[in-house]
């Protein structure tokens, strides 16, 4: 989620529930240190590094997602159709070469090409599977943008609406449209740019306010009060700058317009529609992956003792959705098929990012001439959710998640190998 590192990661990848409590029973984990999980979860970083055998496939195939795939070593399942053999071979080579550990799914509109979950374990001590959940961080923005376009289609809001319509005390909002907010051309400062965003906070109190924000101890009113006082980075519409604040505001608008909590809206209108049964928004600590390498974030008070972000309310809209690669595939397929928004809305969400040199669309980046999607980054979870228009197979979905920031390069390289092969 942190803007500077997120943008570096994004650039590297663009090279050649109420309903908020869906899945309310969270996994209880106790942590002896920030990198070693105790016997209660039977997982440690050393075990994650050495696990290579494939698990019992009964639970994997119960839903039919991996049914008919050939089981290979290293928790990998592959389509036996010869037409996919070269792609599978190249991706497997990249997985081994770069040391990928996590959950990865490659699919078309109709078939699963492969699932790979090498070395990584879930909180149960079993190898990760397509339903292991991760904090997908900024990948949540695509879901937020989808919710906004649903409301546009319902005639409840317009791309031309200015922010002062929803936030009357925001004087600068009269010059900022929802189009600007969706496309990161609003000039609104990112709340991770602490000294500029928390403009009303005395300098000596800034660190504590930032920590309170990370612990979800900042109210919407205090958040907005500081936004109203913060300067813009540029005149709206004249430039583009990635700012998480934009998508927090979009979530607040969803709540204003619908009278529902954001988590309730996306569950009813997106998760349930897509059959995303392992997905939640605004639920803290229920990820079933095992976060690693988050010592510094824990010491700074930005994550809890298990490595999980606490700010599920403040991050709504820009992050905070927990899901797995299988559910993300269901979302992607529904998005492009017209199940969630119309073809015209999808065109609006994607076309601008390809035709405008600034590059950010509505919760979507162009990753190549034939690929778009989003990445997400936080203390220890990184996700890539990318749709590739291939000549041979039609739409190909590449979805991968890892639970250590040290594995971000491996995830990027596996994706790039997939893109080059297609």
Please provide a written account of the structure:
The protein has 422 residues and is α+β, with helices and mostly antiparallel strands. The protein has one domain (3-188, 232-421): Beta-lactamase (3-Layer(aba) Sandwich), CATH 3.40.710. The chain is 36% helix and 12% strand. It is built from 15 helices and eleven strands. The chain has helices spanning 3-13, 45-50, 58-61, 85-98, 140-153, 178-182, 194-197, 206-214, 220-229, 244-258, 262-274, 295-299, 325-337, 343-355, 408-421, and strands at residues 70-72, 76-78, 103-107, 112-116, 134-135, 280-281, 321-323, 365-368, 371-377, 382-390, 394-402. The chain has an eight-stranded antiparallel beta sheet with strand order 1-2-4-3-11-10-9-8, sandwiched between helices. The chain has a three-stranded antiparallel beta sheet with strand order 5-7-6, with helices on one face. Helix 4 (85-98) packs antiparallel against helix 15, helix 5 packs parallel to helix 10 and helix 5 crosses helix 11 (262-274). It is globular, with a radius of gyration of 21 Å. The relative contact order is 0.19. Residues 1-19 and 21-55 have low confidence and may be disordered.
Shape verdict: globular
Please give the share of residues in helix: 25-40%
Q: Ends: how far apart?
A: 29 Å
Classify the secondary structure makeup into a structural class: alpha+beta
Annotated CATH architecture: 3-Layer(aba) Sandwich
Tally of DSSP β-strands:
11
Q: What would CATH call the homologous superfamily?
A: DD-peptidase/beta-lactamase superfamily
Number of folding domains? 1
Q: Secondary-structure element sequence? A: HHHEEHEEEHHHHHHHEHEHHEEEEH
Cα radius of gyration in angstroms: 21 Å
- What would the average pLDDT be, to the nearest integer? 86
> What percentage of amino acids are in beta strands?
5-15%
